[in-house]
Amino acid sequence: MQTATPTRKAPRPRADALRNRERIVTAAREMFVEHGPDVPLDEIARRAGVGNATLYRNFPDRDALVREVVCSVMDRTAEAAEQALAETGDAFAALEHFVHTAADERISALCPMVSSTFDKEHPDLVESQGRVEQLVEEVMGRAKEAGQLRPDVGVGDLLVVVAQLSRPPAGTDCLSSDRFVHRHLQLFLDGLRAPARSTLPGTAVTIKELRRS
Question: What is the pTM of this model?
Answer without folding.
Answer: 0.73
